[in-house]
Amino acid sequence: MSEIKTFTPVKLICGVIFSEKVIREKARDILLEKFGQIDLQSDAFPFNFSHYYEQEMGQNLKRYFLSFQSLIAPEQLPALKHQTNQIEKDFKLFFPGLNLIRPVNLDPGYLKASALIMATTKDFAHRIPLSGGIYAHLELLLSKDKVRTLDWTYPDFYQPGYQQFFLAVRKIYLDQLRKLRAERTP
After folding, report:
1. At what angle do helices 21-35 and 77-91 cross, to 10 degrees?
2. How far apart are CA 90 and CA 154, in angstroms?
3. Dihedral of CA 177/157/152/55: which sign?
4. pLDDT digits (tens, 9 = 90+) for 36-70
């Protein structure tokens, strides 16, 4: 019988889709308050690979990513997705004048040494049910200096800027794991 071990802590990340700079800044402030210090923030990239969100969120959408300093347990992902969904609902109260059905889209996930996992509420063949209606979506595979996409990787994740960001987050994460292991070693 093999021994059951606890999961290695992972790096919380969150993707933010927005149309207005003021929305971007407010989202960052709220996520900072909810999830703690940010150790890396990506540039804002045009989100023009899909028109899926335009009716609710407007045009000229952009997406950026935040990486949070504190490591989390991977099993927290469903609760984090529920939290970000509630933040999205509450967000309309901050910007009633913008006349947007959905001012912001928040996509939490985590990065581990070998992969980027995103949370989703949408089922599909390759997604793993977690709990509370939340699925794990394997987005990218990661190695030392390479990102590998998969057949189901969202089109915007093919952008070199995204991939460079996740490789940079991976370096921070691996350094955090080394420090964590050194602290635990007597």
Report:
1. 140
2. 27
3. positive
4. 999 999 999 999 888 888 899 989 999 999 999 99
